[in-house]
Amino acid sequence: MRPRLSRLTLCGFKTIRDLRDFEPGPLSVLIGPNGAGKSNFISFFRMLSWALVPPGQLQTFVAKQGGASAILHQGSVPAREMEAHLRLTTDAGVNEYSFRLFHAAGDTLVFADEWFRFRRPDHDDRQVPGLGAGHKEPQLISKAEEGNVTASTILSMLRRIIVHQFHDTSSGARIRTKWDVDDGRRLKEDAGNLAAFLHRLQNVEPKYYQRIVETIRLILPFFATFELQPEYGHILLRWRERGTDRIFNASQAADGMLRAMALVSLLLQPERDLPDVLILDEPELGLHPYAIEVLAGLVKSAATQVQVIVATQSVSLVDRFEPQHIVVTERSEQESRLRRLGPDEFADWLKDYTLSELWEKNVLGGRPSH
Predict the structure, then answer these.
(1) Which one, 63, 78, 216, 231, has the greatest CB density within 10 A?
(2) What's the per-residue H, E or C state across 218-278?
């Protein structure tokens, strides 16, 4: 069994004032109006990812966000600290990582508390020593570097929680530029190294590469194949189209085309290479209805192997999932609230309506309220 994020507590982070013991399950599809908090929920995992880059980049993330005040919950009584507790479950037992951050001078965040532990299913909870207070970057990294096996294991698990967002397809986006051909082992969060990633699959995992090509053809019927030829140690995303011998490159691609290529490549890579927790932020952006249908199928397939969290605004995408996959995100009294639908909660309604119709009618919730 691959590690699963079985529970998350998150308090005082942006619009999320008090989210306790949230259970993501194998598949979570977050819906809700603009500003409800879906992006803030995902932003926490981005912060975690930055914080766990050696030797720790938490302060860089804080600065990029505009300071600690932009990260802490700003309700009627602004929060002075935030806390998070993550529980990751495997066949061997439960791995936990917890921390509190408080507002400090210079509009920064400093650790008030941090701890980690592993416990087996048949063992009682036990107290664990904290990692101290007053530090600006996670001590979990230092403990792992010192050879602590539990710290190293938990750090590795947390680093396998990865957010992918392919929104930036502007003319200067990394996906449109040349990339180091040897940097293709993992697809970057923004798919900037897509050409190098595909080049590696073509040479090392040809079966998976061919599946990617064939699936892209379903979405883009004019697409023939990729032309992945390194030049002086770098590679640019190029392809051929049916009915012509002309070679096109990423600078000529439509935004939706690049996003479709990136999503298919991500979701159809070898299962063992997928992140343990795969988070997709509005993957439907720029895709036509049939592409969204294909995307939903790929997401559901991936969710049989790894844990998947998707934030979406697409009614078409929502209709491809079951009620128990849907997490309604709403904002009330300056805070975000997340609620998973029950499998039979709307059984009578679903005899006559689709999930998207119930969402649009605000039966599910997750629509703007005035």
Answers:
(1) 216
(2) HHCCCEEEECCCCECCEECCEEEECCCCCEEEHHHCCHHHHHHHHHHHHHCCCHHHCCCEE
Could you tell me if 18 and 39 are in contact, meaning their C-beta atoms sit under 8 angstroms apart? no
Cβ-Cβ contacts under 8 Å for 196 (sequence gap 6 or more):
179, 180, 181, 182, 183, 184, 235
Task: Extract the tokens encoding 250.
Answer: 């990423």
Q: What is the mean pLDDT of the chain?
A: 95
Amino acid at 314: S
Tell me, what DSSP letter sits at residue 162?
E
Q: Is 66 exposed, middle or buried (0-12, 13-18, 19+ CB in 10 A)?
A: exposed
Reduced to 3 states, what is the DSSP secondary structure of residue 185?
coil
Task: Tell me if residue 124 falls in helix, strand or coil.
Answer: coil
Q: What is the DSSP letter of 120?
A: -
Q: Are strands 326-332 and 27-31 parallel, antiparallel or unpaired?
A: parallel
Q: Which two tokens stand for residue 240?
A: 């051929």
pLDDT band at 125 (very low <50, low <70, confident <90, very high): low
CA dihedral 84, 88, 93, 98 (to 10 degrees): -20
How far is it, in rounded angstroms, from Cα 161 to Cα 52?
Answer: 11
How big is the CA angle at 173 (ends 167 and 176), to the nearest 5 degrees?
110
Can you tell me the mean pLDDT for 192-210?
99
Alpha-carbon gap, residue 23 to 27, rounded angstroms: 10
Angle at 127 between CA 121 and CA 131, to 5 degrees: 115
Chain segment 297-322, per-residue pLDDT in tens: 999 999 999 999 999 999 999 999 99
Residue 160, helix vs strand vs coil: coil
The percentage of the chain sitting over the pLDDT mark of 90, rounded to a whole number, equals 89
Q: How far apart are CA 40 and CA 303, in angstroms?
A: 22
Cα 32–Cα 20–Cα 190 angle in degrees, nearest 5: 50
β-bridge partners, 110: 102
Distance, in Å, from the CA atom of 43 to the CA atom of 15, rounded to the nearest integer, reads: 11
